[in-house]
């Protein structure tokens, strides 16, 4: 295998691992539901994307033809993660989950208490 391609694959794997760890740390560090949802939704998507790209490059070089499975998995993850994060956020707003002082803003769908 070409050395620069091995370096690229290794870099993508390390970047994927770093993104996944940052997403996990965000899940542990943040205090309320809405803040906790942000870290894993963004960073885990990037981590899985980098890892799948590294896998796709590695097996493309080894076998000589690109694999459609990794492309489909990447597309599936990139489409479903933001949708599921949005649905979880809307559910949290519907159930009026408690927010900390660091979570700023008022959900526009719910309005303020004085409007009722």
UniProtKB/TrEMBL annotation:
<dbReference type="GO" id="GO:0015385">
    <property type="term" value="F:sodium:proton antiporter activity"/>
</dbReference>
<feature type="transmembrane region" description="Helical">
    <location>
        <begin position="40"/>
        <end position="59"/>
    </location>
</feature>
<dbReference type="Pfam" id="PF03334">
    <property type="entry name" value="PhaG_MnhG_YufB"/>
</dbReference>
<feature type="transmembrane region" description="Helical">
    <location>
        <begin position="6"/>
        <end position="28"/>
    </location>
</feature>
<dbReference type="InterPro" id="IPR005133">
    <property type="entry name" value="PhaG_MnhG_YufB"/>
</dbReference>
<protein>
    <submittedName>
        <fullName>Na+/H+ antiporter subunit G</fullName>
    </submittedName>
</protein>
<feature type="transmembrane region" description="Helical">
    <location>
        <begin position="71"/>
        <end position="89"/>
    </location>
</feature>
<keyword id="KW-1133">Transmembrane helix</keyword>
<keyword id="KW-0812">Transmembrane</keyword>
<keyword id="KW-0472">Membrane</keyword>
């Amino acid at each position: 295998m070409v050395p620069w391609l091995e370096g690229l694959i290794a870099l993508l794997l390390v970047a994927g691992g770093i993104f996944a760890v940052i997403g996990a740390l965000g899940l542990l560090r943040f205090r309320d539901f809405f803040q906790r949802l942000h870290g894993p939704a963004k960073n885990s998507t990037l981590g899985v994307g980098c890892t799948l790209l590294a896998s796709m490059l590695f097996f493309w070089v080894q076998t000589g033809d690109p694999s459609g499975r990794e492309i489909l998995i990447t597309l599936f993850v990139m489409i479903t993660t933001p949708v599921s994060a949005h649905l979880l956020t809307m559910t949290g707003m519907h159930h009026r989950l408690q927010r900390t002082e660091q979570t700023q803003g008022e959900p526009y769908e719910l309005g303020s208490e004085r409007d009722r």
